User: What shape does this take?
Amino acid sequence: MAATNYDVLIIGSGASGGMAAYTLTKKGIKCLMLDAGPAVDFQNNHVTKPAWELPYRGLGNPSRLPHVVQANEYNANQWVDEKQVPYTHDANAPYNWVRVRYVGGKSLFWSRMSFRLSDYEFKAKDHDGFGDNWPISLADLAPYYDQVEPIFRVRGRKEGLKQLPDGNFIEDTTSWSPAVQKFIGEASKRNIPVTKMRSSLGRGQLASSLNLLLPDALATGNLTIIPDAVVREITVDKNTGRVTGANFLDRHSSREMHAKAKVVVLGASCLESTRILLNSGIANSSGVLGHYLHDQFYITQSVQAVMPEVRDKTAPAGYASGGGYIPRFRNLQTKEKDFLRGYAFDFTAGGTPDAKFFPLYGKALDDALDAHRGTGFTGTCMGSVLPTFENHVRINKDVTDAWGIPVLHIQARYGSNEFNMAKDAINTMAELCRACGWEVLARRDQPYPPGYSIHEVGTCRMGDNPKTSVLNKWNQSWDIKNLFVVDGSSFVTAGSQNPTMTILSLSMRASEYLAEQMRKGAV
Amino acid sequence: MQALAAAPAAPALLAQQTVPAPAPEVAESAPLDFSIPDEGADPISRFFSARQFATLKRLCDLLIPAAPGSPGALEARVPEFMDFLIGDAPVQRQQLWRNGLDALESQSQTRFRKAFADTDAGQGDALLAPLHQPWSFEPPDEPVARLLAAAKQDVRTATYNSLERNMAASGGKRPRGGGGLYWLAVE
Assistant: This one.
């Protein structure tokens, strides 16, 4: 059987690749999609197991996933095996690269927090003078956010905040619990906004490319998906300089194949797309491919407080429950002395603090935990990271993965801006808790290593200038007109908002542009 | 090679197959009842030295003592489990445990002139004083404090997730159902 001559080869099937397929196939464009991982039957691929049945009693194999803090014995099989697909970093600069290789990608497991970026991010340089603006503004992307949010069924409440633009929401009509109302009262005294969480409801168990994008794309008859296809490199016609497809290996057999298409769309995730481009030796006339790696620094359990009014079950039912979101409030109208940009929090009330926070053991610890059931208040801090040229990835030719493909060396560190911001964030949250009359058991103002948030972006940045950016404002390679990169690698700056809605919207926008260019014969 | 030589015969065998008569209706058999190694066998400890293991056993007993109807860490064979877990861990974690157990034993000898394994409740509590300090996300530098912070978490989880503890909570029977969602490996 001769291979079909496809219009577009899409590499990756997660949020960005899935949206590219969704958009292009509906316009009658024949697409071939490759994903490095297997297809999964999400409904039937997990079972309920008690922890005592697990070989490591729930603690997990201690050597299996040293960089994946999120891993436990229950979810260990979700993550990419670090021995099969290694990467390197300097010993004193750890990087936690957390990866998923399944059809559907990380969209199978994401937290579903669904925000828009604002012009405080798109035009960040105009606001504070650091780095670069995006070549687009919120007005350019808003029509695509408007379309993406209903597909993912984003629930939220319109708040009218410039730094957290409202969306096309399913209205959140839930009320605040009394404990959260108390917190909001103290926050408002300090001009700190609190919003309802904005979250993708999806359908059924999932809010994923796998159930929201790929089925529609397949239904057009214009999409072919090949799982277990590990892309080694993108191929180029030496005469024209145009990309012609990709060489890939079958995950099981390592049989090497070539997929041919008129256009290549990369959506393999920020660092995997960058790795493919670097291994292909293309799209880097600017010299910035692989640079400007950034994310959001995360501090989970940044402040752990207890509410004394709930202790020993003294509060009425429902007093302490629910949670919310604090959007960025620093460096908007005022200017901080120690750091640029800002941070956000998501918080929850009503949990039980972990045993580690109590300075007790034995029966005394059990008694304390009983007394503190439902008394907890905690928040995760999500801070903006400055994109810098120095934070970068490059190919390490001395190390290869299980298919003989050279791996990435990641060189990234947080700097004083991030550390100062983290201190301010945790001081602020601790002060709010104390103002509520709550006891702060523990606080952490040191971010986890870069990568922990799984929001890595920026290594294939877009821009107005081909000398300082890899992509133009349509996610199209400056160097190769029939090459597009539609994942988070195209970000110029990430802000403190979770990136998935922006990735989806950028991919839809780029794909519509590509379809129009193909219609005109301009690609 | 034998498998390859046998392969050509397969199509002929398939062609000879006839449609079997319908099987008589039988009742569904009960699901098979499987267990785990801990229920039917004894662990073999290999990682810690005899002295370290004795220190570990006393530490586990202090952290999660038995209570009526509630097995403690010793009944849940947590010391033996920790020997396996830490033996499988990266070197840094192994050093944390070995150095911490050695330091705990040394402190016991210095303060009470006896092995930590032989300390009474009061002496043991005095040596576990770092656990009465407020929690910090920054791991302590001192080896005993560092060990205790790690052991408090791991020993607790290993005990609460043990078959023994769960059977006790289920009236002595192996519990059915419950637990978390386990993501299966995909090949």
